[in-house]
Design a protein that fits this description.
Structural class: mainly alpha
Number of helices: 1
Strand content: under 5%
Shape: rod-shaped
Helix content: over 70%
Number of strands: 0
Oligomer: single chain
Order of helices and strands: H
Amino acid sequence: IIKDNIKGFLKILNEKIRWIIKIVLFIKRKVKKLFFLVTRVYDPSQNEEP
C-alpha cells in the first residue's frame, strides 16, 4: 500500500513539475518579447533596418 501511495505521489509531483516548467518557459518567452520590444522602442538605431 505504501509503495502505491509513493508512486501516486511521484506521478502527481512529476506532472506538477512539468506544468511549472511549461509556465516558466512561457513567462521567459513573454519577457524576451517584451524586452525586445522595449529595446526597439528606446534604441532608435535598431529601427533603421533595411
